[in-house]
Amino acid sequence: MPALMHKPVTTIVAIALLGLLALVPVASEAFDDPFMLTLFTRIVIMAIAAVSLNLILGYGGMVSFGHAAYIGIGGYSVGILAHHGVHAAWIQWPLALAMSGIFALLIGLLSLRTRGIFFIMITLALAQLVYYLGNGAYAYGGDDGLTILKRSDFGGLIDLNHRPTLYYLCWAILVAALYFCHRTVNSRFGMVLQGAKSNDRRMATIGFPIFRYRLTAFVIAGMVCGLAGVLSATFTDFVSPAMMHWSRSGDLIVMVVLGGMGSLFGPLFGAVSFLLLEEILSGWTEYWKIVFGPILVLVVIFARGGIDGALSRGQAGALMTGIAAFFLVYGVHLVYEDAWIIPTLILAAAFTLSGLVWWHYRRKRVASTETAGGDHA
Amino acid sequence: MLEPVLQASNLVKRFGGLTATDDLSLDIREGEIHAVIGPNGAGKTTMIGQLIGELRPDAGSIRFLGQDITHLPVHKRSHLGIARSFQITSIFLNFTALDNVALAVQAHDGHSFRFWGDARRDAGLREPAMEALKQVGLAHRADVVASALSHGEHRQLEIAMALATRPKLLLLDEPMAGMGPEDSARMVAMLQSIKGSVTMLLIEHDMDAVFALADRITVLVYGHGIATGTPDDIRRNEQVRQAYLGDELEA
Amino acid sequence: MLLLLFEQFLNGLQIGLLLFLLAAGLTLVFGIMDLVNLAHGSLYMMGAYFAAVFTQWTGNFFLGALLALPAGALLGIVVEVIALRTLYTRDHLDQVLATFGLILFFNEFARVVFGAGGMAIELPSWLEGQVMVMPGLPYPSFRFLIIVVGLACAGFLYLLVQKTRLGMLIRAGASNREMVGALGIDIKLLFTLVFGLGSALAALAGLMSGPITTVQIGMGDNILILALVVIVIGGIGSIRGAFIAAIAIGVIDTMGRAFLPNMLGTVLNPSDAGTLAQALSSMLIYILMAAVLVLRPAGLFPAPGR
Questions:
Q1: Which of A218, A319, A353, C123 is deepest in the core (most CB within 10 A)?
Q2: Among the three residues B164, B197, B221, which one is the final residue of a domain in this structure?
Q3: What does the DSSP 8-state code read for residue C83?
């Protein structure tokens, strides 16, 4: 796997992370902490959605600002069938995938004719259309959403009511999605996709009709994301338009960019760190977004390539320092739980993080000027 | 006599009031290097645009290997065997040199709806790509990311990508543009070495290169071909001297 | 019936004009600096909060509004100088993300500073009443004022863009950024000025909608999406396009909400009809946008040279 050989650190970290994720149900049992399993089921499901977005955003350069729509379409397909008394998984799940695929095909046919900012806007608009479709579906709860009373039935093969079983199913699907993504981006199809991202005019002159390749990738990504929606609906026993709100699509983009666009494991890192950060920060202060927002701005401005970029530039140490500093501040907060100290700590943490990010940036610049041109050979 | 590889007859292209191509006829024979020269604004790029299919002529026709291609789109002409190197370097910067060329090979090797096999280990793509890199003398830089290559190497890579599509006709749009004398000399030697294996249409400002390489030269002034002939013919042509070359060739 | 139709048209016009104030700043910033600023909705929200605070402080809505406008412009300028300046040369994805981060920040900032409960803006008593816009059609004075102010601003912007030197630069910038730089203009200053102007317009829209709805966290998020739709339909960088698209969307949305429930009510029960009508009139806007983009990919009035 030559693509992986270039980034041994990333691959090792990613495999270790997947291994740790596999142990979550055991740990949850051992520490008698059921919330842990709930949190990580959510994380794994969002990671699947992020992997699907990375296929078109990271490798294909298609900035879809409406990817959360497919989570909703997958979820509603299951919810609506369950509402009508159809519980068989082999009807629900393929139908949910087909619906996501059909919607992705329609949205792609319209949106892929446009470029740049217009593509961002039209995917956003079409996803809003789907969002309001959910809002207007009064027979299925409208904006209140729809509760799923009985989970999909695999005929006794898999028991989705057993929480660890559901978790391992999600985990296995995540691993499968990653493997599928790895094969696809390195295949001939993936080469065309990445070539079209880099220079679509050139692709036409060397003889590729790129529209149909882009559309295919768009549909595949929609279907994988629809599967994440199926899992999400199954896990929460609930679907509502809120899961398709435009800010959910924004969250997905953030996950992909935070982890590293166009890197295989980027979305995994991104989803895990985004949701963990959300969890920790929101347990820390109810105003967690006041910290998270600036972190996001700083990452965008200074740390292109996200977590994966930092790892493969050999900044694992710096990244660890950052994480350690973060938890140090968190620990201090836990010990001295005084109200006045919280804002101070927030400021200190923000300052530390921005300092670290700035330092990465400087180091990267210095490194790239020193080795310009030669070190890839 | 053999039918020419490409035959453009009475091409006209107007942009508003400006006639960029004015009743231009051109034939390119199998195996030759046919150079088109002319002062800036003579309509060379417009001519290339019409031959490659990015522009539609307002009048006239283009025949390629006996087939009328006047109305074919770009990617179909590419599949018939017309390749082009861009005046402004236009490669995939985040791919390695070999990846770039392999992608060009792939474009002419059936459809690309293949999702599983590793394209970087596909001998059917890598070997012809390596062959093309060898032809342009870039084989030793095959695994270098394109963004790390020099300007001269980018131009070589451009031509390797065009060659990799196994074209019957190669349109070279100012391949020496922006090159130093050393790189230029290397490029001339390289074009010299592939001469004969592929028919070439060369547009170039570097007169030394043109007269060293070309079998025939067409001189373009205001979109109209004022003369076509061997380098010696062109050198002696009084009209060309007055219109374009001036005293440049006396030296 | 005709009077009702006209009243709803006025409501649509009023919402459309608010949208236009928001979209005008957005389209200028987008057109001249090529910057997608999702945080524009936050400037709208902050404008409303400023007005609420200053009104409480001075006890007079007009004084409050007069103070809120420069405060909004100043906040915009600070945001531009600190965060957005580095983003001009980045691609749209980076801009979308970073300004998305700013939305998160401002929403929480408002929660910390102004509290989670939202604030009301007290109007002077003479604005609480109604005016006769037509014989037999009384209309709320404040909404009427919004229409007057909105039209005045549209006229002002038209004159500014068409007749002044600044407007000439803005128009030139929308079609060719390098040229403005080549003219020897201090492009940084121009950008900051335009951004300040856009922020003031957003604050104006926010402070005028404050007394009608309440001033609350996230009030800018949904109207921002509508404003984005407006500038995409109108053509990026075009004030005229933004004006036409904003009015069209305001009217479509209001008419849909006003008349669809009755029409659907003939076949559905009232609460279902209400739910469906609201969704349908919202969907109508996005269908309109999709249709415009398919037929005219650069919007109705694309800036030349883009």
A1: A218
A2: B164
A3: I
Domain that holds residue A47: 2-314
Helical (H) or strand (E) element with A239: strand A238-239
Q: Are A72 and A238 in contact (CB under 8 A)?
A: no
Task: State the residue range of the domain holding B235.
Answer: 1-87+167-251
Query: What ipTM was predicted for this assembly?
Result: 0.81
Measured from the Cβ of residue C159, the count of other Cβ atoms closer than 10 Å reads 11
Counted domains in chain B: 2
Residues of C in contact with A138 (CB under 8 A): 268, 271-272, 275-276
CB pairs under 8 A between A and C: 135
Of A122, A132, A296, the CB nearest to C101: A296
Single out the residue of A268, A280, A367 nearest to residue A18, CA to CA.
A268
Which chain B residues contact residue A377 at CB under 8 A? 141, 143-144, 148
* Number of separate domains in chain A: 1
* Residue B182 and residue B247 share a domain: yes
Residues A349/A329, Cβ–Cβ less than 8 Å: yes
Interchain proximity A300–C101, CB inside 8 Å: yes
Give the residue carrying structure tokens 């509502």. Answer: A240
List chains adjacent to chain A, taking adjacency as at least 3 C-beta pairs closer than 8 Å. B, C
Structural domain includes residue A361: no
What pLDDT, in 10s, does the model give residues C157-209? 988 888 888 787 777 766 666 666 666 667 778 888 889 999 999 999 999 99
A281 at the C interface (CB within 8 A)? no
Q: Which residue numbers of A have CB closer than 8 Å to B's CBs?
A: 1-3, 183-184, 186-192, 194-195, 198-199, 201-209, 213, 216, 373-374, 376-377
Asked if C203 and C50 count as a contact pair (C-beta separation under 8 A), the reply is yes
Same domain? For B190 and B221 the reply is yes
Final residue belonging to a domain, choices B147, B164, B181: B164
What's the predicted TM-score (pTM) here?
A: 0.82
Determine the Cα–Cα distance for residues C81 and A43; give it in Å rounded to an integer.
36
Task: Specify whether B130 is located in the same domain as B249.
Answer: no
Provide φ and ψ at B67, rounded to 5°: -115, 140
